[in-house]
Amino acid sequence: MSLRGLLLERISQTGPLSVAQYMSDCLLHPEFGYYATRDPFGARGDFTTAPEISQMFGEVLGLSLAQAWLDQDRPDPFTLAELGPGRGTLMADLLRATAGVPGFHAAAQVMLVEASPTLRQMQAERLASADPHWTDNVDTLPQAPLFLIANEFFDALPIRQFIRETSGWRERLIGAQGEALAFGLGADAPQPGLAHRLEDTEPGDLVEICDAARPVITGIAARIAAHGGAALLVDYGDWHSLGNTLQAVRHHQKTDPLAEPGQADLTAHVDFEALAQIAQQAGCAHTRLTPQGVFLERLGITERAQNLAKPLSGSELQSLISAHRRLTHPGEMGNLFKVLGLYPATANPPPGLEA
Ligand code: SAH
Fold first, then answer.
1. Minimal-distance CA residue to ligand 1 atom 23
2. Same domain? 235 vs 109
3. Using CA positions, which residue lies closest to atom 20 of ligand 1?
């Protein structure tokens, strides 16, 4: 049985799936899920993320987080957490860059929120010296000061899609067309959760909501508000999302999201305004949404690149220059990716994210 076969069987028994149910199985089904079964990163994989492009990304994020810890009078002990750590590269680079911050490592309990057993195994090998602990969700993070990073985590959370009618909405659903999966629309129905989107949309527009983000942000923001800390959330998306952003990528190429369930990475743009509002409701302050390139430049990525470049020449130097460009240039990842910081209302925003 393939994942497609399994989904077709479920559709014939219980009817069409929401996009969220489909995404969730494609990414995390224990037997066939994309993340559950493989290491998708790097040149030979399906896509490359910022920490896999260059060590500078994790180093610079680490310095912002450690400075936020210093600014909040070095809480000890505290939780140093990452959501969806992938290969563990970002946390490894962060730890190396912060080794010189007196007391930071000694006070940190490293916690990794990761659903994939395959990736947990890679993280265990990569981060053994930090003695990390794993958890399935943020609810089980300690009630303690929380300093947290997440890169390309929220874009992997399942979204639902709705098409605007006159005053109601029709949900975009996935059903069967012979042996293939196909998009369709549910019945026109009011959606109280989308009342605020009636103001900025017209009939025919598509909006996306990510129910799964709410408990994650609430769990993080409540800890930061109560105990102190900071969160750096990096992802692609914008302040306000409008339109269909569901995307499938395999072998570095976009593909049809329904064509190969479980074989391609599925993501959607992050609606940062929704995350910021949830954080605020939980009593936490949030920074201005800042382009990744601006954030990295403010934290000195160019000086770091110049230092790393000193002993290099030829192709090594070229690849460092191109990594710096990919991370920061507005035409590459610099503007597409954004950073949102969460912090206690009584503290200063994390460095790099000041208004
Ligand atoms: N941060 C890494 C990996 C990004 S890919 C990097 O930048 O390279 C998304 C990561 O989130 C993977 O580790 C994936 O297994 C994990 N993930 C996806 N959905 C998750 C969920 N619902 N709960 C926990 N981890 C999840």
1. 115
2. yes
3. 115
pLDDT at 43 over 80: no
From 47, 135, 153, mutation site for ligand 1 pocket: most ligand atoms within 8 A of C-beta: 153
Residue 61 near ligand 1, beta carbon < 6 Å: no
Q: Which atom of ligand 1 is nearest to the CA of 36?
A: 15
pLDDT, average across residues 248-258 = 95
The tens digit of pLDDT for each residue in 169-180 reads 999 999 999 999
Report which of 233, 236, 232 is spatially closest to residue 269, judged by C-alpha positions: 236
Q: Which atom of ligand 1 is nearest to the CA of 41?
A: 8
Shared domain for 224 and 128, answered yes or no, is yes
Q: Considering the domain boundaries, does residue 254 fall inside one?
A: no
Residue 18 belongs to domain spanning: 4-30+160-208
DSSP string, 228-260: -EEEEEEEEEESS--S---EEEETTEEE-TTTS
Q: How far is residue 291's CA from residue 335's CA, in Å, rounded to a whole number?
A: 5
Mean pLDDT of 114-130: 96
- Model pLDDT, residue 48: 93
How many C-beta atoms lie closer than 10 Å to residue 148's C-beta? Answer: 23
Q: Is the model's pLDDT at 13 over the cut of 90?
A: yes
d(CA 122, CA 125): 5
Assess whether the C-beta atom of 153 lies below 6 angstroms from ligand 1: yes
Whether 283 and 339 map to the same domain: the answer is yes
